[in-house]
Amino acid sequence: MVIELRDVSVVFEKGTDLERKVFERLNLSFQTSSCILLVGETGAGKTTLINLLDLLIKPSTGTMLYDGIDPFTNPYEFRRKFGVAFQIPERQFFNETVYDEITYACKNFRVPYDKEKILKVLELVGLSESVLKKSPFKLSGGEQRKVAIASILLHDPEFLMFDEPTAGLDLKGVLSILSILESFRKSGKGYLVATHEPEIFSGLFDKRIEIKSAGIVEVESL
């Protein structure tokens, strides 16, 4: 799938004293088979770009096209192709148990799953079966991040997006993230990783997007 942003601007609190412009006339194009490193200073707009791509916010002006189609005409159909793990995992939890949290996307997007598939995903992120009955809100920060990642892997998305995926993880957790990305890359699927620690992911990207001041974006092939 080809994602295009044409002259996209994003303005928060428009027309108020708190008005904040993140992007102005942003132009960006990539295929979801790309493996993308997203960098920029804190507050530059990395999370805003992820929210845009996941259709959680609309551009203030400009056009977004997914394979030539306005994705907001059918956001459900396009969002099922994405898996997003946000910077603060707890904010994306809705359910009382880890089991319900991990299977939520599958139920929402009507993707079949079974116990074997769940256990395989848990193994990938370094969690045991015993965690399934626990509350995701009572886990450690590192465990919450692993649950969030497991929840986006189970419905087998076409494109993954991670916002600071290694924050709060021990070495074993970091290695599991690297293994997941490598597996995705070998399968021909893509991902976008926003991080302040790009050196951890050496060799896992074919494209680098840097958001600079005033929302200026530079794209470089690696």
UniProtKB/TrEMBL annotation:
Transmembrane segments: none annotated. It comes from the Bacteria. One of its GO terms (molecular function) is ATP binding. GO terms for cellular component: ATP-binding cassette (ABC) transporter complex. It is found in: Cell membrane. Pfam families: ABC_tran (PF00005). Residues 3-221 form the ABC transporter domain. Keywords: ATP-binding, Cell membrane, Membrane, Nucleotide-binding, Translocase, Transport. This is ABC transporter. The lineage of its organism: Bacteria, Thermotogati, Thermotogota, Thermotogae, Thermotogales. It is a peripheral membrane protein. InterPro entries: AAA+_ATPase (IPR003593), ABC_transporter-like_ATP-bd (IPR003439), ABC_transporter-like_CS (IPR017871), ABC_transpr_CbiO/EcfA_su (IPR015856), ECF_ABC_transporter_ATP-bd (IPR050095), P-loop_NTPase (IPR027417), Sigma_54_int_dom_ATP-bd_1 (IPR025662). Its main location: membrane.
